[in-house]
Amino acid sequence: MYKLVLNTKIRKFLKKHPEIISKFYNKVKILVENPYENDLDIKRLVWTKNKYRLRIWKYRFLYEVRENEILIYFYDANSRWDIY
């Protein structure tokens, strides 16, 4: 099981959008069990090796899987049009 770390930016984003908090945490529970094989809407970011995006409705959450630390680090979140 991977450890989960949320950046302050993610916490602020979730406070602004309380309607997606439960969906976010439900998906994160699945993600920490196995970050690679699951049915979540996840894509690897093209220009990186271990960075991914998680889609929930019109929002995107960017995260990094750090294998050497067994850690999933969420570092950015925003709407589809503003995240990339």
Structural description of this entry:
This protein is α+β, with helices and mostly antiparallel strands and about 80 residues long. It has a single domain, classed as 2-Layer Sandwich (YaeB-like fold). About 30% of the residues lie in helices and about 35% in strands. It has helices at about 10-15, 20-35, 80-84; strands spanning about 5, 40-45, 50-55, 60-65, 70-80. A 5-stranded mixed beta sheet has the order 1-5-4-3-2. The model has no long low-confidence stretch (mean pLDDT about 95).
Report how far apart the termini are: 29 Å
Helices and strands, in order, run as EHHEEEEH
**The named CATH superfamily:** RelE-like
Strand adjacency order, main sheet:
1-5-4-3-2
Which residues sit in consecutive blocks of at least 5 with pLDDT less than 50?
A: none
Task: Give the CATH level 1 class.
Answer: Alpha Beta
Work out the count of structural domains. 1
Kindly estimate the percentage of residues that lie in beta strands according to DSSP. 35-45%
Categorize the overall geometry. Answer: globular
SSE class = alpha+beta
Largest pleated sheet? 5 strands, mixed
CATH topology: YaeB-like fold
* Radius of gyration from CA coordinates: 12 Å
- Determine the mean pLDDT: 94
Say what oligomer this is: single chain
| Number of DSSP-assigned strands | 5
CATH architecture: 2-Layer Sandwich
Helix content: 25-40%
Number of helices: 3
